[in-house]
Design goal:
- The chain is mainly α and 211 residues long.
- The chain is flat.
- The protein has one domain.
- It has ten helices and no strands.
- α5 runs antiparallel to α10.
- The chain starts with a helix and ends with a helix.
Amino acid sequence: MIFTLLIKGIIVGLLASIPLGPIGIICIQRTINKGKLSGFLSGMGAASADTIFAAIAGFSLSFIISFIQEQQVIFQAIGGLIVFGLGIKIFYTNPVRQLRRHKRKQNNLLEDYLSVLLVTITNPLAVFLFIALFASLGVVVEGENILLSLVATSGVFIGAMLWWYILTTLVNIFRDKFRLKQLWWINKLSGAVIFTLGAVAIFGLLRLFWE
């Protein structure tokens, strides 16, 4: 029972992490520009937030879910602004300076972790994704068994962590093949995609108010 629940939790963590949205783009960009550890810790920020959402879903914290539903517009607005700001920052970042900092070991790894944690945590609607994934895979904990809920939640964290390790490892293998001009374009394209996604989210909310 416990082992099966752990495996199902790992599968949920993988399924929730694999889609390459703005978080995936950020992790790829940081792995190329700043190294595998920077990209992996950025992914761990997302994994930490996903684990919190999975815990809310797994422990059936209905009062938190209700609060998220009531305040979803505010969360979406904050998340859109943060994603937009991160995109602008990446767009105007000089990859040469990032490479020099990496060589001098001056990367701010805590900032890498916290920035992605913040972006991911401002999308609490992901709780409903985990509710759906738990239901589809039969991850159901009868009663209020805290131990089993912790096992399922731990599985989600392991699955998410495994995905970000695989992704950053694969990207890091080809990292040395990129030239400075290519890195410059990667920064521009990554930043443009990320701040466009943020702008789309903000515009979508503004349309709700206009209508």
